[in-house]
Amino acid sequence: MYYNNTMLHSVPVGLNILGSTFHMLAQQMKGIEPHPIETKIHLFPPLTSQWKYDNTAFISIMLIGMAFVFIPGGFAIEVVSYRQVCDILR
Fold it and tell me: Which of 4, 55, 71, 82 fits 9 for a cystine, CB–CB 3.0-4.6 Å?
């Protein structure tokens, strides 16, 4: 017998084991080879969504993209301002 041992399923499983035991005793008294009652219990569907939106991947891509955009732009601004200062000093 396969069963889920959480509190939600423990009472039905206990009743099933008890019923299976009584059934096997009744079969044994009648002279029949006793077979347990075989059941399978499936999990209930989850009540809450298991998938949650995680924005860390989006934010990390944005930060890496901003680094690739602003750092070379900063170097270009430095070159332009240096040329302007050199033109003024000449």
Answer: 4
